[in-house]
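Input record (one chain):
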Amino acid sequence: MLILLPPSEGKTAPSRGSSLSVDSLSLPVLNPARTKVLDALVELCQTRPEEAVDILGIPKTQPELVALNARLHEAPTARADRIYTGVLYDALSPATLSPAAKRRATSRVMVTSSVFGLVGLADRIPAYRLSGDTTLPGIGGIQAHWRNHLEPGMTEALGDGMLVDLRSGTYAAFWRPDTSAARTATVRVLHEHNGTRKVVSHFNKATKGRLVRALLESGANPRNPTKLADAFRDLGWTVEQGAPTKKGTQLDVIVTEI
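The corresponding structure, as predicted from the sequence alone:
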C-alpha cells in the first residue's frame, strides 16, 4: 500500500543539518528530473530575486523565501516529516506515532513535491517554496514537468499494492493512475450538517491526517478500495464508496462535527 499525500505550503526550515544529497533520496529514477527543477529554481532566485517574487507567488512581506530557494544546494536538511507542516501534518503528527506505526509510515507514505516529485517521510530535504501550479523559467509548467517524468517513480513506489490518493487537485495533476486505477482509492472528506454536505478545506485536511494516522496505527494493509473502505469503517469512520472509474474509486468520508 502507498499513501500519497500533498505537500504543505508552509514548511519548517531546519537551522542545522547536512546539505542536500539528491543521490540519497528515495526513487533515484527521479533524480534527473529533480535536478532540473532544483537548478532552475536556484538560478532564478539567485540571479533574478525580484522577478522570482512574482513568478513564485511569494508575498512581498516574505522575501526571505526567495533567499531560502537560492540556497537549496547548501541549506540544512531534515527528514521530510519534520519539514512539512500545516493542518494535515499536525493531525498526522508523525513524531508521536507508535514505533510500529512509524515504521509503516516510512515504508508506506510519500509526499508529492514540486521540487522532488515524490519524497519519503525519512528523506532528508531542505525547506523550499515552489507551488505545483507555477511556471518556472527553464522548466515550464511544474505540473507538466512531473506528468512527463513521474511515472517511473510512481510505478516503483506503488509496486503491486494499492494507492490511497489524498492529493489535492493541483498535485493530482502531476500523475494520473492508468493500469493501477482498479487498485486506486481517492479520498474526499464531506462535512454533513442539517442534511447538507460540503467540503470544508481546513477540516478536510485535518481529517485526512487523522485517517492516515489511524490507518498506520491499526496495521491494516488493504489491497483494494473496498477493503480500504472496510478498514476505515472498522476504525469508526462513516464511508460511502463510489463506482470504479478510470481514475480510481472515490471514498467519501462523512463527518458531522468540525
